[in-house]
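ARCHIVE CARD
Drawer: 12
Card no.: 0347
Subject: one protein chain, sequence and derived structure
Cross-reference: see card 0346
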Amino acid sequence: MGHMLREIASYSGELDVDMGTIVRAFPAAWVTFGGITSSKYTSTSRQKVIVTGKFVVMVGDYNTRSDAASRMGGANLNEVGTYRHIHGVRRLLTGQDLGLTIDPLMPGIVRTLYNTQVNERALSIFACEFETRWHEDVLKNGEWPEFTHNPEDADNLFNRYRGKVQQPDPDLLRVGLHYDPPGVGSVEHPADLVPTRKPTP
């Protein structure tokens, strides 16, 4: 966003304090997780769900001239206005996954949070919503998280904080076939071993 914003930070309740105080940080943007809006099973085994979540970027600016100028900006370079902030945020984030294992961000609605006067300053704040989806593994009914040393594993959290865990199921490495050849009988009990995959390191 360059010089369009004075501050970009994680939202920590800044808008819940006195507006006369927070306006000193404007123009600014705050980012927050808006919550999980839905979860649906994606397999008949019910071992995976696709989760839909929402992220919100709030942008705020003020102008001493008018309400319109606080939204649309003005002739001076430092009179950006929240409409330009909205355009910049949506332009930068739409279609991005930010290096995370999520679907690219999809822009959602833009809501007015504040459009008022504070100490003879026209104040404008909007919330820009983005939606994304990701997959989560589900524990089998009645089972516990698995013991693991892998920090990327979904069950690593329970291992790290000494929660109850169970040993993982053994790998299926091969399938044995024992049969009597037609017309030969079972003289030497012929058998085949069919490898399924290599052992997990």
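Annotation on reverse: The chain has two domains: 2-137, 156-195. The mean pLDDT is 85.
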